[in-house]
Each structure stands twice: as C-alpha cells, then as structure tokens.
Design a protein that fits this description.
Elements (H helix, E strand, L loop, with lengths): L4 H13 L2 H8 L3 H15 L4 E3 L4 E3 L1 H24 L8 E7 L25 E7 L11
Parallel strand pairs: 3-4
Antiparallel strand pairs: 1-2
Helix pairs in contact: 1-2, 1-3, 1-4, 2-3
C-alpha cells in the first residue's frame, strides 16, 4: 500500500461532503479529478472505500476504518503546520479593544474592568482597553 496524502485529502473531503460535485467544489478541482483520485486510492488499498449511490457516496466498512486513520493524519498534519508557522496551541500577544463614549461609561461597556473572555497563560497575552470621549464628564479608561 502506497497511499498519497493528496488522495487521502480528497477521500476525507468526499467522505464529509458526500458527493463528487460538492467535494470538487470544496477542493477547487474538477469532478473527474475527485473521481480519479478516489479510484487510485481504492486501487492502492485493494478495496472499495465508497458505495456509489445515484445521488451520493457512502463509506463502506473499509472506508469507515480509513476515515478514522485519515482524520488522525489530517490533525497531525495541521499540528505540524501550526508548529512550523510558530503558532502552536497557545496564543501570544496583546489584545487591544477600542470603543467610543457609548461603550465607555462606568458600570458597563469597556469602562468597567474588562471581563476576561479567554484564558491567558502567564506571560502569553495581555489585554488593554482604550476609550475615547468627546465630553470629559464621566469618561474613563482602564
């Protein structure tokens, strides 16, 4: 067995979309390309991966088994991509929120101490808020 990752990506998309047309649209390729890649993968594995019904493709038992493994491979490939891009699983940086006077009155909006809508690991991210007011009465920022 010598499966090509690109064929596996096509397999995953067809399994999720359920039709050649929808899979081709999602992948930005032609309908025959999806069909050809699936046939190549089936030949590589020596078994049918889909039952071809008039209006959709349905996974066979062999296809269901491959779906689990291909999904795990996809997650691993995405993790490798994130790591190589320096994104990892954590977020680093500063979140800046700005609002006009309607959102900045004491007791509400951004004028109140900011509720932290996300978990921040020590040293990984910080949050700052900035408010602007046309009138000086009652405006403040945190």
């Amino acid at each position: 067995m010598d499966a090509d990752w690109n064929d596996l990506r096509v397999f995953l998309t067809l399994a999720r979309e359920g039709s050649l047309t929808a899979a081709a649209r999602r992948l930005g390729v032609s309908h025959p390309t999806v069909s050809r890649r699936v046939r190549a993968l089936e030949e590589s594995f020596g078994t049918r991966l889909f039952d071809r019904l008039p209006d959709k493709f349905v996974l066979t038992a062999a296809g269901e088994g491959l779906l689990e493994d291909a999904t795990a491979m996809e997650r691993a490939a995405e993790s490798l991509h994130r790591r190589s891009a320096g994104l990892g699983d954590t977020v680093h940086g500063t979140v800046r929120l700005s609002a006009g006077e309607a959102m900045s009155w004491p007791g509400g909006g951004l004028g109140a101490p900011p509720a932290r809508p996300f978990a921040v690991s020590p040293g990984s991210a910080s949050m700052t808020t900035t408010t602007t007011c046309r009138a000086r009465v009652g405006c403040w920022s945190s």
